[in-house]
Amino acid sequence: MVHTGDRLRGALRLHGGELAWGARTYIMAIVNVTPDSFSGDGLESAPNAIAHAVEQWRAGADILDIGGESTRPGHRAIEENVEIARVIPVIRAFRAAFPAAPISIDSYKPAVVRAAHAAGADLVNSVWGAPPALLETVAELEMPIVAMHNQNGTQYDGPVVDEVLAYLDGCASRAVARGIAADRVILDPGVGFGKTAEQNLAVLEALPRLVALGFPTLIGASRKSTLGKLVGREPHDRVYATVAATAFAIAAGVDVVRVHDVRAARDAAAVTDALVRGWRPDGWIE
Question: What distance, in Å, lies between the first and last C-alpha atoms of the chain?
Fold first, then answer.
């Protein structure tokens, strides 16, 4: 049951259905098929990663984001064939078990995206924005894309928020020019990527400006080091801090939250959506 009126802004249509933008917040669950995730939740074993993906889905995730290369600070890029070998068995197995579930491939490499699409992935989550070769692949395969702001280092020529928004607006413009519909271009300001803790907080404070660009939006602040600095806790113990960031992002109008802890995010989204978006659960009785 949705009381959102004219706030609906198109939908992300996937082979298993659609996610209506503005109806409620969608939960993107993290599935790291890596040995070196910053949050300690990486699962290099395919059977373990598959089991984790199933657990995340049953906990209430709307999208499964499966990645095979860590992007933690100081990480080293891996070869495409290694990344493909990690993620494809997980995507195939999860797709077979849940034919209608939305699956995202967390990669910026065209070869990995092609292999993931063939295995059953629906959309692309790129931590390096929308480079031309990736856009060509995404457009050819008719996949939606999450374009995230990122850069090497934390130096900016002007205010960090201005530069992040200009970067993302450029990504969106190039994607639309390539024929990708605006409601299939999702913008992520990249909390924790190429930013200091103060810069991350500035980006979070300015989320209404991100939403005002007019495209669907995503935030991935889950367990990030900025939250750890604020609360003095290790990654696995930042659930409450992540819930606070999640509620703040939803109140700002963000459409998707990418999280490790699905149940906590689902509860935060239910309460915040009820207040911000007029959402009510099925069967709601006044």
Answer: 12
